[in-house]
């Protein structure tokens, strides 16, 4: 890396001159020139810069900016730059217009068939047979002498067309609002994206859209570059350009080999300053995006990608750079579990509907032909042909209507509404959902792999203990207790060896805590400086970032950060900070109380580890070591690229213990997760003692449990075979018991997630959610079923890879996501239960009615209205039920759980029986009951009858009351529970009722209705209300007794699951409140009998014995189906999968351990025992102590109850 002194600009004449001339004339640089410059790479780019501008400083001068102070930040200057070089915005693709959406909705096949049929019906209704008497065409055709009635024949066709228009408009409106919502969400994501630039000498954060050409931007690890630029100064900067070039290797950026940085690329390491040279559509990404946009207008494919909406530059980055990645990545997201099940179910129902409608048409036509030409014995008259065609069209319309009612086109709508509603509400719960299906997948989650820092803890770090000058201070010492020399080195070291973007700001409110900006671990160290009553800013002003000679930035392999300063005499001094047990191994001296350095032997190091680091870690503190090294001029210039030589022979200044308190709401959230059947695992970069202490504070591990806490090194040793390859069987032995994975690298995290997802040890397959904030968490976030990125601490890269962004970085928000996810699932099931009842009844009524009376009792227009109620309105009403805490009291559904459980199937069939009985009674005996004319066998174009109006009205009333029943799907008794919390539901049911009154009383011919009297209405409503009473009867019947019931809508093919297992699965998972009641009844009955028994016992003990044995046998038989209900499901027990823990010592020198950089940039501490560099332990926390010999090292700290040390650990 070139020495940064060459890169620095200490307010050179040209720089100052440039700033002074901010407002002079125009820029000496054209847009075209800059665009062509950014198309060059590496040496070509350097050559062009030298040839045209001299150097980067020359380019700054041309663009009227200063490499040190940036732009002046005047509004008119910014505006002029936007005008000259463009804005940093890529215009979004135009949303579809409402008319386009209407056109798309019209493409629905069933609707097209209906339209065609309606138009034919319309055309034929105007036709009059010329001379032939209508009677000659058969009985059915005659009978209507009234001219007015005959003229009204067109009404039915017109009404069908009108209903079609209604359905289309509703569908289009839903799509439109969904897209609008999606764009709103996207723009919200984009508004939150800010970037750090230097303006007027101040470091400020501006919205990405506000960045202009000439800005000097600061880039750091984890950033997604928002525009193209040229490097001004960099420290160890490495960029991932795979999104543009497809090359996965990281590209090192320096002034003398490749200073070109491109938008849409990710900073994987280091930091630096760049001069922005191209923004928006002129940046490299923008150019690609524009090209894509040009060829994309008629290509729907891309639409998905660019649906992202109102786009800041990021939109381009999201859409096309990652286009390639996404194409590969989306298959991993398969179809979401729910979509898969629904598609399958919809296809099955559709096939059944098609079959029934075809059958209806064939039977109707056959009956008509038989009746007219055979029974009545009429000849075929040419003039009657149009009338016959009219009959056929009428039959055809009835058939299509049956199909329309049978096909649940409301399903996709219900899913969309439910998801969109949930997403909107989840925003309030701090979950920003980026992919709709993630919300529903979360409901099935069985495992959550969470970070520690910031997610489980508050990410507000403070130094609370220190080991300085041979003394362990339990609280931060006063500055006069520290030797002057040590104090000066400490202050300088912390000041320059923390990123200059990390700083402590004054509190926002009076008396509040100071704000920590930047890396939280560095903020803790800067806070330590302030507590020592010194100011780190004076150091930073003396040594600005440009004067730093060389910086080795933090990364997950080094686990430390070092900064080199060049002194006036030509010598160098390097300050380092990092994970304590790693840096201590590199120290050969340590500062004493007198301020002198003394030799630091391995024996001394063991003492520090055992008496300082371990006690700190066991209290949940993160330990950081601070050290320095001098390079005297006599040794000559060191080889700065050889890191191993540079980072040895350090002198330890101090070890600090940093506290990051557990968030107060986390232990409760974790308890709720565990109750909901979700296993929480902590995957952290911190050392194993700190991790275990925090895990027990959170409730992830409990003393006495049989679980595993291991670190990354031990994890890798256990999952790899002799060849170093990962084996799934080995992972399967570990993950069921694993609760804490410490000192883990991002690769370990990815391996663990993949291992759990691919495992077949537990049925059903695990659904894994992962949280991450570091750039290197990207692969794990993408791999997991649901990836959560941190909104505050997360890097752009992590957010890109995630499905949901936690805007408050809080674990308890994940629990809310689980609740919403489960609610989506239940909402869909409620809707299905309602919809299928209507389907079954409507199809059977239409079919049977048609076969017996040659006409469907429910007319086409009426069916379309019912379809509208049950599809659109019901999906709105049932899909917007708010979630309740009870959702967290059951286990996750899993991938193979059928959508329609046997309890639901019982409800569907039970209600269908009631409704069919009522409808058929009315249909065949209604005229006698109500003393009205029969509506059966009405001729063509006959006026509507009261009889059929009552049938239709009763049918709709039953659906309305059944909608209330459908609110509960697990057999609960109280269907009104919480109904007033859902105003949408109440208003829809009420609204539908009002519209129904209007239709019946004033619908007339188009709806085939006649006004009804009050008592007829009351009867209709009463029969509808019967649904609620019948619901209680259905609930009482225990599901397990109805062996013939089958569930439907499985995730996998039914055949793949053996029959007996399926039965078992269903009985286990089924929640049936009716059954539980019965069980309670049986228990009471047993008790009663038990009492009788004891009395009998007093009379005759022999009799007692025989009675007892027979009673017990009898009861064992009756209770056997319920035995499994109370006990936790046996398959959740993990004991079957683990061998007993082994204790191993590895003497080999470990590789540089990797650490997750979620704990990332923070130089996470570690603990190593004694001389063995890593004695990684498996901690079985048994209730009784296994005999492990006398090697209990933690004896130094008396174990106290409740502490992680209280449970037995075996250390060496």
UniProtKB/TrEMBL annotation:
Query: What Gene Ontology terms describe where this protein resides (cellular component)?
Result: plasma membrane
The record's listing under CDD domains reads:
P-type_ATPase_Ca_PMCA-like (cd02081)
* Region entry Disordered, spans: 1-20, 296-335, 1144-1212
A Gene Ontology BP annotation from the UniProt entry: regulation of cytosolic calcium ion concentration
What GO molecular-function term can you cite, just one? ATP hydrolysis activity
Tell me the keywords, alphabetical order. Answer: ATP-binding, Calcium, Calcium transport, Calmodulin-binding, Cell membrane, Cell projection, Cilium, Flagellum, Ion transport, Magnesium, Membrane, Metal-binding, Nucleotide-binding, Phosphoprotein, Translocase, Transmembrane, Transmembrane helix, Transport
Q: How does it sit in the membrane?
A: Multi-pass membrane protein
Per the record, the domain of life is: Eukaryota
Q: Which reaction does it catalyse?
A: Ca(2+)(in) + ATP + H2O = Ca(2+)(out) + ADP + phosphate + H(+)
Q: Could you say which EC number(s) this protein's record lists? A: 7.2.2.10
- The UniProt record lists the Cation-transporting P-type ATPase N-terminal domain at 50-126
Q: Where are the transmembrane segments?
A: 101-124, 154-173, 354-375, 395-421, 908-925, 945-962, 983-1004, 1016-1037
- Per the record, where are the segments of Acidic residues compositional bias? 296-305
InterPro entries xrefs: ATP_Ca_trans_C, ATPase_P-typ_cation-transptr_C, ATPase_P-typ_cation-transptr_N, ATPase_P-typ_cyto_dom_N, ATPase_P-typ_P_site, ATPase_P-typ_TM_dom_sf, ATPase_P-typ_transduc_dom_A_sf, ATPase_P-type_domA
Q: What does this protein do?
A: Catalyzes the hydrolysis of ATP coupled with the transport of calcium.
Quaternary structure and partners: Interacts with PDZD11. Interacts with SLC35G1 and STIM1. Interacts with calmodulin.
Homology family = Belongs to the cation transport ATPase (P-type) (TC 3.A.3) family. Type IIB subfamily.
Report the protein name in the record: Calcium-transporting ATPase
Organism ancestry: Eukaryota, Metazoa, Chordata, Craniata, Vertebrata
